[in-house]
Specification:
Helix 2 packs parallel to helix 7. The protein is α/β, with parallel strands linked by helices and 248 residues long. It has seven helices and eight strands. It has two domains: 187 residues, Rossmann fold (3-Layer(aba) Sandwich), CATH 3.40.50.10490; 54 residues, Helix Hairpins. The strands form two sheets. It has a five-stranded parallel sheet with strand order 5-4-6-7-8, with helices on both faces.
Length: 248
């Protein structure tokens, strides 16, 4: 247990839950008590689960697997998109399209359509169409970008999913669970965490709290990616040294 981390959790308002009437029984073990009829998280337990989630993210990134960032709720969309872009991970920070994981092959066709339209527009191949046709294509591009722009580079089912508020994005959670994709999630007192491999019990309703948890996971991913890069570079260095010895 780290006193500094617990202090930062408190300062971020991570302890604030929802009304007791909204409490989901699966998360009850992480609740310390109530204040003004609202549940309050036990930050000592939250800190433990946060460290477990960071370890999971670190291991996933170290192994080179992709982590899909998911945030449909307004409070988390921009925070999660920026975080995903920072660590070059796929993201869905808009309304989840049903079948994104469970019907991955079909969704892949729509992603391919987006890539084709992007390429054609960049190369000027759409200039041969009428103004009205180009307008319709631009609208199609905008629509596809909004829905699938964040997963263009996700060529296979991700190694894990990181979601803020699994109650809001329950369809994404159900699909990940069905496909055997482990889930890391920031979950408030109203969330069902029975399908979450690495839950972080905490306030998922305010930007300050969301940002704190997201930054922690991003930091773990960055460390994992650095370790993965170093591991790949090591064999190359050994080969270079062996070649130098042969030449000598």
């Amino acid at each position: 247990m780290t006193a500094t981390t617990i202090k930062k959790l408190f300062e971020a308002g991570a302890h604030f839950g929802y009304s007791r009437t909204r409490r989901n029984p699966t998360i009850a073990q992480y609740i310390f008590g109530q204040k003004n009829r609202n549940d309050i998280f036990d930050l000592e337990l939250t800190e433990v689960k946060l460290e477990e989630a960071k370890k999971a993210a670190l291991e996933m990134a170290t192994s080179g697997k992709k982590i899909l960032f998911v945030a449909g709720k307004n409070e988390a969309r921009i925070i999660m998109r920026r975080a995903a872009e920072k660590v070059d991970e796929p993201f869905v920070c808009s309304r989840w399209i049903g079948g994104t994981l469970t019907n991955f092959k079909e969704i892949g066709k729509r992603v391919k359509r987006l890539e084709t339209l992007r390429d054609d527009k960049e190369k000027g191949n759409l200039d041969k169409y009428t103004k009205k046709e180009r307008l319709l294509m631009d609208r199609e591009i905008d629509d596809l970008e909004a829905k699938f722009g964040g997963i263009v580079d996700m060529k296979e089912i991700p190694g894990a999913m990181f979601v803020v508020d699994p109650r809001y994005d329950y369809i994404a959670v159900n699909e990940a669970h069905a496909k055997g994709v482990p889930i890391i999630a920031l979950a408030n007192t109203d969330c069902d965490i029975s399908k979450i491999a690495s839950p972080m019990p905490g306030n998922d309703a305010t930007s300050k709290s969301i940002t704190f948890f997201v930054d922690q996971i991003v930091e773990a991913i960055e460390k994992g990616k650095a370790a993965n890069k170093a591991a790949k570079a090591t064999p190359e260095k050994k080969e270079e040294k062996e070649e130098e010895k042969k030449e000598a």
